[in-house]
Amino acid sequence: MSNKDLLNLIEQKRLELIKVAMKNGLASSIAVRYSQELDHLLNEYQQKYSQKVLSH
After folding, report:
1. Which CATH number applies to 3-55: 3.60.15.10, 1.10.8.50, 4.10.280.10, 3.40.190.10?
2. Helix (H) and strand (E) counts for the chain?
């Protein structure tokens, strides 16, 4: 997956999280799940970015 694709997924998940949190509350189970999914995507991006920086 390209960095651009990953960034698009991150932005999409961030917007979904905001929408769900506004509707159901930040502590709702669905908001927590979306937050965890966003964390996973951010960690994946960070790992890719760190590898790219270290290889140069």
Report:
1. 4.10.280.10
2. 2, 0
